[in-house]
Amino acid sequence: MNMKSIALTGIRKIEFRDVPKPQLQSDKDVLLKIAVVGVCGSDIHYYTKGRIGDQIVKYPFTVGHECSAIVDSVGKAVTHVRTGNRVAVDPAIACRQCDQCMNKKYNRCRNQRFLGCPDQMEGCLCEYIVMPEENCFKIGESMSLIQAALVEPLSIGIYAVKLLRNITPQAIGILGTGPIGLSVLLAAKHTGISTTYATDKIDVRLQIANKAGATWVGNPDKDDVVKIIKPNSLDAVFECCGDQDALDQAIELLKPGGELLIVGIPDTNRVSFDIHKLRRKEIRIQNVRRQNNCTQAAIDQIENRQLNIDFMATHYLNLENTEEAFDTVAGYKNGVIKTMIQLE
């Protein structure tokens, strides 16, 4: 039996294909019927550049990793989900055996396989995928399949805030207010961080960040954000846009002993810092790799109405219109924050 799938076939080239429907490979596997897929910035990197660093697409290749699904069938050893359950999906499959996994740092797994990541596994822009039981998180009736597809980016925001060494910073910066920056903002507000400065080069995103609770928003193309926020004033800065100028601004904004958390993915293989400013202020740099053990927390905070993430889903298209979805996100068109591809 075949299924419908979307494949990248070249730079900015997408092909609609019929491919074999996946089958359960182990007793702990779950066959999932995909319901909703969120288009992520990393998908766009693969679409427009064909790579992220040394992760290079070999065509044809199916991307996509932010998804919700309905359980179609389960292996005989699966115990916590059953046919018909609606689930959010953790796209990262850890080996559970390496030194990182044994230390419960599953996001650093040496043998990790990730949905839609070149040389690891095909993505979820298709009708069915197979995932291990431990990657399938059942959602309650109050939670929509759209919200469940937003769990993955929200979990990254929760994890990034959780990584703060200074447990109760008073003032933070969020540079870049796309879906990940907005997720950081929501997580920060939820943990009680009182003052949040947010920047972006797209004004509509700043308006959304302001409505989501940012204390102050500014456009670095129009505002001298360092002067307005004040140099040496922030406890932590989350760099969420992968931009060299933002990294430079972060170092200026951080107070001595502050923390720079790098969440965004740069277009280039190398970034730079003024080492003397880093050294004199003893700035701590923390890279953020996806998320670790925060999927259930994201689900709980949505279901318990502690966080409202509905505003992030701004555009809705079906699988046949994936190219339009990708072009909308790649071109920052029509006030897009997150485009959702609906299969159900």
Write the layout of secondary structure elements.
Elements: E1 2-10, E2 13-20, E3 29-38, H1 41-48, E4 51-52, E5 55-56, E6 66-74, E7 86-89, E8 92-93, H2 99-102, E9 113-114, E10 128-132, E11 136-138, H3 145-149, H4 151-162, E12 171-175, H5 179-190, E13 195-199, H6 203-211, E14 216-218, H7 225-229, E15 234-239, H8 244-253, E16 254-262, H9 275-281, E17 284-287, H10 295-303, E18 313-318, H11 322-330, E19 338-342
Description:
The chain is α/β, with parallel strands linked by helices and 344 residues long. It folds into 2 domains: 183 residues, Medium-chain alcohol dehydrogenases, catalytic domain (Quinone Oxidoreductase, Chain A, domain 1); 133 residues, Rossmann fold. It is built from 11 helices and 19 strands. Strands 3, 6, 7, 10, 11, 18 and 19 form a 7-stranded mixed sheet that branches. It has a 6-stranded parallel sheet with strand order 14-13-12-15-16-17, with helices on both faces.
Could you name the CATH class of the largest domain?
Alpha Beta
Q: Would you count the extended β strands for me?
A: 19
Categorize the overall geometry. Answer: globular
Task: Give the domain tally.
Answer: 2
Category by helix and strand content: alpha/beta
Compact overview of the structure:
This protein has 344 residues and is an alpha/beta fold. The protein is built from eleven helices and 19 strands. The longest helix has 12 residues, at 151-162.
